[in-house]
Amino acid sequence: MAGFIPEDKISEIKNAADIVDIVSEAVLLKKTGKNFSGLCPFHTEKTPSFTVSPDKQIFYCFGCGSGGNVFSFLMKQEGLSFPETARRLAKRYGIDLPIKRLSPDQKKKIGERESLLDINRRAMDFFYQALCRGKAGQAARSYLERRGVSQKTIDDFKLGYASDSWDRLLKYLTNQQISPAVIEKSGLILPRKNKSGYYDRFRNRIVFPIIDTNMQVIGFGGRVLDDSLPKYLNSPETPVYNKGRSLYGIQQAKDKCRSTGTVYIVEGYLDLLALYQHGIENCVATLGTALTSDHVRLLTRYAGRMVLVYDSDEAGIRSAQRCISTFWREHIDFRRQDVFSEDKADTHILVLPAGHDPDSFVFEHGPEAFMEAASNSPGIITFLMNRAVDKHGLSTEGKIHIISELQQSLAAINDRVAQALYVKQLSEKIGIAESTILERIRSISTKSSKIGYPGLPTNTLRSGLQTRDEKNTVLAADKGPAGILAGNRVERQIIAMMIQFPDILPDIRKYNVLKLFSDNTLKGIGESILDFNPTSADQVSELMSGIDDGPTHALIASLAMGNESWNRKGCLRLIGKFVESGRKLRDGGLLESQIKDAEKRNDHKLLLKLLSKKQKMAENSEKQKMALLNEV
To answer: What is the average pLDDT score of the chain?
Structure first.
């Protein structure tokens, strides 16, 4: 698994890295006994099933079966190779790694991502210097000053300026011996139509570097200094940048989001900077796209309460409406008994007064007014109800339009009780019978489940007791994600015993227990445990470091996470039963077959020999059983 990174360095990294610290940067963890729990970052869930053990330095999700150590987590979370993960952790904890030759495939796989991140970092520095020191950046500095952006904000977010030149950035990067073909993959340059070369993508624009939670520059946004179009220009999708999974300002906001429990979501770079500059640092901005499920899952790691901040114009209202089904699927948990009122749903829509966006509002009215408006902001459904009533009125035709406009959003609520409460609220607001509204909603839901209505959960209005997360857990138990529950139940129990109570390992060797295993994966893990020879149950993370297989990590984590109270007496009883049944199955089955065959052929001499052998086997089995019982 280590490849070209020395084992002693892997051990040093593992000993320095704390899995709780690493995981808590991606998952909002809460202390639960001696472990920590949170919402799994690897599958959609609303009830926490993701567990981190600080003692064993492992994680495991009881919902989807993902598990492993700190290396496994980062590899799965960030899509990194093991060497990339090791280097990142080594850099974080100040551990020097020796440089060794890489194979061509390793260089290609590892090199491309790191090259693009390096190019982006160089470009950010180039744009920043052009804004702060270059003569050409004077116009950009004046523009930001007029917009009220301070030098501190410029420095904190590394704002920059792309000059009105076709190839200034291109020349800067190629002068540093970077190939134009590689720069093109970063999205910073484009090929000329006549194929005579390349030109800069960003020209005469304020540049906003997009930085991820690991402080890596993954892309850029650019805004013109006048009213020319397009007003905003963003990096294209690249191997390191995906706008549906990225949020502007997340690197600055994540700690404040975690400490306050709230995140404000805006739509523009300058809106975010204005809030940040007024002390509202727990805010992020989408990047020219509607809020996605990935965005919501990312933010859920840092904050429980989300406030979507929109302009008061029609475009802002449409943006808010597009987010409804995403939030019902990913964030709002109406299965908790305390979340039956919208005030506790923790997702709110703040539409600012007419003529204002977050930028203008906070500069004109101040941060206190913004915070007050946010605290009074309605939940999603109440917002849509109020909006529909204001838009259509309460005439007969207006009520018809209101129900038509709200039916899809109400149908998207996948909890029957919560849905009934909102239907009652709408019924009282517009004076239409609840049964009439429910009939319309269920009609929509039935159609959507048959044709796959866009944005609507297929299990909408399902009345069964088993929730989606509960179903995932049942499937995990039945099928064993990544092979986690594959194999014989007793064999799994023995491996768990070996991990959690390593004092029993000499007895595992003595009685050749693993030779009787039928499941090769479990047998391989058992052999790895014997080779590693741990002296403590807390060494499970080190055990994983020597095994080059992600699914096996998850299997080991699932077996190590148990809280069984092992003792030598109980372990020997388990071994005794397993050895006895295993040898009977292995040897007795074959012997019985031979005896039957001898009887059919009337081979009395062979039959007597086989029966004698059977008697000796029974005596040996009894002796071994008694030996085990005596040890107990």
So the answer is: 81
Residue ranges per domain, the chain? 7-92, 112-233, 381-451, 573-631
Alpha-carbon distance of 457 to 327, in angstroms, equals 11
- C-alpha neighbours within 13 Å on the C-beta side of residue 544: 29
Rounded to an integer, what distance in angstroms lies between the CA atom of residue 89 and that of residue 16?
Answer: 9
DSSP string, 315-332: HHHHHHHHTHHHHHHHT-
User: DSSP secondary-structure letter at 455?
Assistant: T
d(CA 495, CA 517): 11
* Spatial CA neighbour of 148 closest among 27, 273, 24, 45: 273
Buried-exposed string 459-490: b where 16+ CB fall within 10 A, e elsewhere = ebbbeeeebbbbebbeebeeebbbbbbbbeee
* Share of the chain residues as helix, strand and coil, in percent rounded to the nearest 5: 55, 10, 35
Distance CA 233, CA 511 (A): 69
Helix (H) or strand (E) holding 210: strand 205-211
Q: What is the DSSP letter of 585?
A: I
| Pairs from 590-599 (Cβ < 8 Å, separation ≥ 24) | 591/617
Give the span between the Cα atoms of 438 and 492, in whole angstroms: 49
7-92: CATH architecture: Alpha-Beta Complex (3.90)
Q: Vertex 522, ends 521 and 525: CA angle to 5°? A: 90
Phi, psi of 51 (to 5 degrees): -125, 140
- Both structure tokens of 400: 């018809």
Phi, psi dihedrals of residue 227, rounded to the nearest 5°: -100, 15
How far is Cα 622 from Cα 436, in angstroms, rounded to an integer?
75
Tokens representing 280 are 């509202």
* Cβ-based neighbours of 577, under 8 Å, separated by 6 or more: 490
Other Cβ atoms less than 10 A from the Cβ of 520: the count is 9
Alpha carbon distance 450, 226 (integer Å): 49
Q: Length of the chain, please?
A: 632
Q: For residue 431, what are the CA distances in angstroms to 287, 389, 409, 435?
A: 41, 12, 19, 12
* Distance separating alpha carbons of residues 409 and 335, to the nearest angstrom: 18
Cα–Cα distance between 552 and 530 in angstroms, integer? 16
47-101 pLDDT, tens digit each: 899 999 988 889 999 888 889 999 999 988 877 778 888 888 998 888 888 765 6
Question: What backbone torsions phi and psi does residue 349 show, to the nearest 5 degrees?
Answer: -115, 120
Count Cα neighbours of 59 within 13 Å in the Cβ-side half-sphere: 35
Q: How big is the chain by its Cα radius of gyration, in Å?
A: 31
Q: Which helix (H) or strand (E) element contains residue 288?
A: none
| DSSP per-residue codes, 491-530 | HHHHHHHHHH-GGGHHHHHHTTGGGG---HHHHHHHHHHH
Q: At 194, is the secondary structure helix, strand, or coil?
A: coil
Instruction: Count Cβ atoms below 10 Å from residue 539 Cβ, excluding itself.
Output: 18
- Please tell me the least confidently modeled range out of 401-415, 426-440, 477-491, 580-594: 477-491
First vs last C-alpha separation in the chain: 39
Spatial CA neighbour of 183 closest among 194, 173, 192: 173
Going by CATH, does the domain composed of 112-233 fall within 3.90.980.10? yes
φ, ψ dihedrals at 347, nearest 5°: -135, 120
Residue pLDDT, tens place only, 218-276: 999 999 998 888 999 999 999 899 998 899 999 999 888 878 889 999 988 999 999 99
Q: If we measure between CA atoms, which residue out of 209, 245, 240 comes closest to residue 121? A: 209
Report the range of poorest mean pLDDT among 150-159, 160-169, 488-497, 591-600. Answer: 591-600
